[in-house]
Specification:
The complex is a heterotetramer, with two copies of chain A and two copies of chain B. Chain A has two domains: 111 residues, NAD(P)-binding Rossmann-like Domain (Rossmann fold, 3-Layer(aba) Sandwich); 153 residues, 3-Layer(aba) Sandwich (Rossmann fold). Chain A is α/β, with parallel strands linked by helices. The longest helix of chain A is centred in the middle third of the chain and has 14 residues. In chain A, 36% of the residues lie in helices and 22% in strands. Chain B is an alpha+beta fold. Chain B has eleven helices and 19 strands. In chain B, the strands form four sheets. In chain B, strands 1, 8, 9, 10, 11, 12 and 13 form a seven-stranded antiparallel beta sheet that branches. A six-stranded mixed beta sheet of chain B has the order 14-16-15-17-18-19, sandwiched between helices. Chain B is elongated and about 75 Å long. Classes of the chains: A alpha/beta, B alpha+beta. Chains in contact: A-B, A-C, A-D, B-D, C-D. At the A-B interface, α1, α4 and α5 of A face α7 of B.
């Protein structure tokens, strides 16, 4: 494994018979992922996209040795679905579901952590390692195997930037979309060490947003523990304080979590910060070239 | 998020046993006077505008009354005020208590810790933002063991309470914690929390309920104090709606992409107005709905920026062209559309054929949108 | 532990919304007849002895009635029965339902897992101990997330339920889990749980409340169905009291030491009777209290085995000698005392001086106690 | 450190101003333990047995770098006291308090585990390493430094047996009293690896009781993972099924957890099982002698 997923990753899709579950099972398989099982209570015994469906994650794991889960079940049932995966021994769960109450997510996060399961998300595009595996919903078309790592709090903006990297003729090692909710299972600080240790990543792209202090905390980690070049972009420079910009994470309150503080922290940590998404690929190419020259 | 008006917040507090001044809600000067005459609100009393903004005291939205007539006069003066953009339609009348010290307590979420935090300060009665950080005690509370005695003791220490008021705090914090959890609150705040004799009384109530937990709380479904009709439609369609000051309508999918679009528009001198975020989806139906909704907002120009992941761009483009026909000619606006992803070339061509400015580059399309809003194509 | 009688257990179940047959409690044949005549208990009905032991059906402690007269006759027959050592003083009369399948569900503690377990079996209506292990589904339930949907779904599968009864199970298990947690139960068991039409009905109720949580549950303080006066005194003094068949009274401190004492006594042919466990303490006051309590139990001989940790043995010995004076001559008994620990030599000498057989060796002192009980010193 | 406590152990006593707290603070100090702090809310600033008292464990840890706690607070407050110690960063907690509701203990156990804190107890005599440190209430007089490890579910019976070992002229490396409650923080299975790895332990004495299956689980561990000689004793051979023998742990229900099954499991695992407490020291001496001969 390089960063969390690889050829050994065996995915169970929770909520596979829903529209999203089915669509993205197809996409994950097209990506080359081993999607070994689906779960929808009451639909055990059927098949979706050639994948056997089980009534419970426990059954799915017992029969298919699934070791990663991709959760699409509706928000009111997401907490139980996550606990089910954890109890079945699944140690990596991508939660795509949006609108999960943060009170539920608090339980999910601390329960999973206690049992040794990593959550990516919720309300996130998931994780993908081109040429290896994808657990989530990032469009396949933006990827191309390469040596640029990407960690992002955004969804479609991640696609935009990852696609930009591809169109620039570069490729990605692993890309993680953390999700933009107030409480996420994996934050920048949690994800950065994985890329620092990953021999397949030469450079890291961090895509942040206003709201919270995850980028500042990430910058602190960069400063003290990260040796690879970093290109960053922070969305929302022009967003007014106090307004929720789309999802609950992206809000500036009490003067904390502004684009300015994030950009300043990242620059102080040695990252090159793009002012616009379309500047990212150029900066990446430039830093890789500089690195190559050394 | 649902911000509850003070009196609704106090209804929640009452349910959990948090001590409150005696009081009642009035929606007219007559009603205010009657509440006092009937004894439901004891004299002297305070008459408070039920608006969501802070700073009511200084803003003339809080008055005192010692007689029923004064209550009527105060009510009449406050009702109909426009306070920080809100029309005052409701008043809360409450007994005026002989107050001791005024404190601050709240429970909210600490995102970085991924834990609720209990916040306590001996400096209540002012905006907590204005209180020195060293004077604010913050304690994470883990939801598994729940709020514990030692946390409550530390809060009592931070508030400088002992004896009767400390005992009252013990019960009050349990109630506040219960309300935070059971009501799925983002914030439960008492400011000021007044020491009254041997006890404590919540003089104000700020309760914010999380939208995402609405499925557990049908009781809050009707309380959406600050929504315009367009916002209401957007909510029903599950489209995030944000109203800014400018004149360029923005439709995008995903919060990050929406904000990035904003940043680029501003860079080129554009002023974004209403913007609609479809969330992470590229569902053509939702694109169409957003487009029709945007038409009702009457923007000067619209910039549509969709990154297509699952759906093919040509499908989205066809849907968009079809939607354009549905907008009455009087409501039409210049449209700049950028649709990226699967089959983007085909999609862009469909749009161009329909007379839409369609540029794949974010930079160029933003420039085009700004120009369109200025009427300089 | 507090084992609740069926009707009390059902009162608990009712509080949590678990469906029950209509019924009421009677303490006389008159009352039983009246319950039926007044319609409070519909006919036909079942009349059940309210005793804690199982096997009531086979033991004649459950009868059926189709008329008020039959209810009276059944009640009269059951009241006053001695059922496995309990006198029947209360009856539960309940409507007799048209039953479908009979199931088993329970929540209790799994000590090894340190988690509650939800137990479900399609084979209800018999003692769960008699059911094949493969037919019993056991699921640990973590108290942090609490009982979840997938656990309830698995239970439904194990019980062979779908449709209406599965939905009823979903609600019922939430209620059962709530009762287990909130009531501080050691066991909440429904056996049988009957499928009645599209729903489920708890035909029996077994609820055991944990003693240690008594401080949270004053409501159970009065329910101590099976306590003798001596046991009651012991409970007040916080001394564990166990009644066995023999004639040697045992006083020891700590469960392990008490049991080891028992094992040694038996080895040498002794038959332990009442024994008192002071817990881990060597508090001389508690030793004295146990001694005086033991005197009331009128044993043939008493073996006192205290390992002194904190207190000095001479202090304990002096207390014991003083206590001996308080026992009236008629109630006196041969005493063999072993006091080990700090200053044990001094303690042993004080006892010997007072005429007590005091041997430091466990083996020898046990032999002495057995001899004393036989009257062969 | 050998087994959990040593010269580096710095004890904070929670509930130090109570009778038990004060008495055992004195005893722990007499044992040679570094008792660095006490906690009793409202008594901060005072002193007990020369030990400074604080209002909170947080204060105590901040000022004295306490790293182990001994909890004496009454049962209704024990859960909160434990959480307080855990949150203050204490990673070893001996809970002496008895009669803690097991529902509380479930929360205590799983919360402490998630945060990386080991609990010994509740309702237990604690842990002691003669010549090093004691966190708990085992009488000092039974100890003498040596190379026999002891793990016991009992209280006073432990004293009896440990004392017997001393009187036989032998000594102990570390002695842990696990407590006899239905839910304990550390069971035989948890404690055995510590003694297996302890270079100062030559032989282990296991003292068990009827009730539960902790001894059987321990025997299973012995069989597969334990290389040192073991002497065991199980109390309650003559206790009748269904009766609670003193505390909630010691009860035989549904035919499980009898002395017979425990003795059989231990013997099958190669342990020498004493029939009476007074046989333990002889067996220990014998096995040590055999070992010496090899």
């Amino acid at each position: 494994m390089t960063v969390l997923v690889d050829h050994e990753t065996r995915v169970v899709v929770q909520g596979i018979t829903g529209h999203q579950g089915t669509t993205h099972t197809r996409q994950m398989k097209a990506f080359g992922t081993q999607v070994v099982a689906g779960v929808t209570p009451g639909k055990g015994g059927s098949e979706v996209e050639g994948v056997p469906v089980f009534d419970s994650v426990r059954d799915a794991v017992a029969r298919t040795r699934a070791n990663a889960s991709c959760i699409f079940v509706p928000a009111p049932y997401a907490k139980d679905a996550l606990v089910e995966a954890v109890d079945a021994g699944v140690r990596l769960c991508t939660v795509v579901t949006e609108h999960i109450p943060f009170h539920d997510m608090l339980v999910m996060y601390h329960y999973a952590k206690a049992q040794g399961t990593r959550i990516i998300g919720p309300n996130c595009p998931g994780i993908a390692a081109p040429g290896k595996a994808k657990v989530g919903i990032i469009p396949n078309l933006v990827f191309r195997p390469g040596r640029v790592g990407v960690i992002s709090r955004s969804g479609t903006l991640t696609y935009e930037i990852v696609n930009g990297i591809k169109e620039h003729g570069l490729g990605q090692s692993t890309c993680i979309g953390l999700g933009g909710d107030p409480v996420v299972g994996t934050s920048f600080v949690d994800a950065l060490p994985l890329f620092e240790q990953d021999p397949e990543t030469d450079l890291l792209v961090m895509v942040g947003e206003i709201g919270g202090t995850a980028e500042e905390d990430g910058a602190d980690y960069l400063k003290h523990h990260f040796s690879k070049p970093v290109v960053a972009y922070i969305a929302g420079r022009s967003a007014p304080p106090g307004k929720r910009m789309g999802h609950a994470g992206a809000i500036i309150t009490r003067g904390r979590g502004t684009a300015e503080t994030k950009v300043a922290a990242l620059e102080a940590a040695g990252a090159r910060v793009a002012r616009f998404p379309y500047e990212v690929p150029d900066l990446v190419a430039q830093l890789l070239a500089e690195r190559g020259r050394r | 998020m649902v911000k509850l008006a003070e009196w609704r917040g106090k209804d929640v507090f009452r349910k959990y046993g948090i001590p409150l001044p005696r009081g009642a809600v009035a929606r007219s000067a007559d009603e205010a006077e009657n509440l006092v005459r009937s004894g439901r609100v004891p004299l002297p009393c305070v008459v408070k505008a039920q608006v969501l903004a802070g700073g009511r005291g200084k803003g003339g939205a809080v008055k005192f009354a010692s007689t029923p007539e004064e209550a009527r006069t105060a009510a009449a003066a406050i009702l109909g005020l426009e306070f920080k953009g809100e029309n005052v339609k409701e008043l809360l009348l409450e007994e005026k208590l002989a107050l001791g010290r005024e404190l601050y307590v709240a429970v909210t979420l600490d995102r970085a810790l991924r834990l609720p935090i209990l916040i306590a300060s001996a400096h209540g009665g002012v905006e907590i933002e204005s209180v020195d950080d060293a004077e604010i005690d913050r304690q994470p509370v883990h939801p598994f063991p729940g709020l514990t005695n030692f946390e409550k003791r530390r809060a009592a220490r931070a508030l400088g309470l002992s004896g009767g008021p400390a005992k009252a705090l013990d019960r009050l914090l349990d109630a506040l914690w219960g309300a935070f959890q059971v009501e799925d609150a983002e914030l439960v705040e008492i400011n000021p929390l007044a020491v009254v004799g041997d006890g404590l009384v919540a003089l104000d109530a700020k309760v914010i309920i999380e939208d995402d937990a609405a499925f557990r709380h049908p009781e809050y479904a009707e309380i959406r104090d600050d929504r315009t009709p367009l916002e209401e439609i957007a909510r029903e369609k599950e489209i995030a709606f944000v109203q800014l000051d400018g004149n360029i309508g923005v439709i995008a999918n995903g919060a990050g992409l929406t904000m990035a679009t904003l940043d680029v528009l501003k860079e080129f001198g554009g002023a974004p107005g209403v913007f609609l975020d479809l969330g992470g989806t590229d569902d053509p139906k939702k694109v169409t709905e957003a487009f029709l909704l945007m038409a009702q907002a009457k923007p000067k120009a619209v910039f549509l920026n969709i990154f297509g992941g699952v759906t093919r761009c040509d499908t989205v483009a066809n849907g968009l062209v079809a939607a354009m026909q549905q907008v009455p000619p009087s409501d039409r606006f210049p449209l700049v559309a950028r649709i990226r992803g699967n089959n983007e070339k085909e999609g862009t061509e469909i749009l161009r054929a329909a007379g839409v400015v369609a540029v794949p580059s974010l930079k160029e399309s933003a420039q085009a949108a700004v120009a369109a809003a200025r009427g300089t194509p």
